[in-house]
Amino acid sequence: xxxxxxxxxxxxxxxxxxxxxxxxxxxxxxxxxxxxxxxxxxxxxxxxxxxxxxxxxxxxxxxxxxxxxxxxxxxxxxxxxxxxxxxxxxxxxxxxxxxxxxxxxxxxxxxxxxxxxxxxxxxxxxxxxxxxxxxxxxxxxxxxxxxxxxxxxxxxxxxxxxxxxxxxxxxxxxxxxxxxxx
Amino acid sequence: xxxxxxxxxxxxxxxxxxxxxxxxxxxxxxxxxxxxxxxxxxxxxxxxxxxxxxxxxxxxxxxxxxxxxxxxxxxxxxxxxxxxxxxxxxxxxxxxxxxxxxxxxxxxxxxxxxxxxxxxxxxxxxxxxxxxxxxxxxxxxxxxxxxxxxxxxxxxxxxxxxxxxxxxxxxxxxxxxxxxxx
DNA sequence: TGTTCCATGTAATAAGTTACATGATTTA
DNA sequence: TAAATCATGTAACTTATTACATGGAACA
Lengths: 182, 182
Description:
2 copies of one chain form a homodimer. Chain A has helices at residues 8-17, 27-39, 63-74, 85-91, 99-130, 140-180, and strands spanning 6-7, 43-48, 56-61.
């Protein structure tokens, strides 16, 4: 993100726009980290005046910083560290002791996922209309970002499907139980 | 996990078996957390002798602990906090400046995902052969766990597909570029 | 006149990782 | 006899969250 100079505030905007879908960071994490990375020699900074507001401190990666990024990528994919809180919740849903509440949970999850899917589809439509080269003739940086969007679309669709299937299975169990113990 | 009494060591085994797929914790996180949760009144513990090894400290949730779990579930699904490191890597893959290295990255990712998928399919086959009620007549706790397995299978398949599509698109770009600047 | 945006940060706390430390028993 | 399993933890460090603190400019 710091191949070109940007402030901590700029980075937060970038997180909120695109990275948010698979990574997030708060300003209160970003500012100290930028200071630390500069201290470690991976970034350099300078203060510049702002057009509308207080002065900005903009950071840019150093040669050492660029090499650290390449090392991270060349080390291969970081897999097996995912933490997905809502799946953990589903795992323990039997503790609610009430199929209706479990169904409500899954319906709420479904609505979250459906809204997320719409937001990704909006992004796609937007990119599509703004660049005729979309998706396969895009310049490299946009192309790889488009790959992440594609995965997001697939995965979130998959989540919606799974929610629907799960709700149907839960409904079936509920009626089966009712008829068994009348 | 502590509806029935278990030691920190037991919990780690549970993480390694099933929860691992969407959440993990190290022993060095588990032991201090158990102590903290007991201090906070969410757990109680007692020391018991072990059949084969040193004495065990087993923990069990208190009534307050049970209520805290219910509150976590009834608060609704925790969405929008996912951090998926390998997607962040793909996002920045253009920095490698070499399509061959990007393709290598995606192939490695594909192999990871394919292995993960196989391990989930093994789990499914195992459950299927061990309980005739699989999947829809299972008791509640196993049923909800099966839902998480189902999502895992769907998602990981989706990742494999996406890797394959992405590799094909990258190959196409590589040859397109070659013919353009000969 | 109140809210959002711009822009910076610190402080306290919580969560999580890596490395270190111990020692018996079981299995290959 | 070497390795894995059983079983507990601490220490140092990194990472991340929540709350607090400031203050001007634009907008409605």
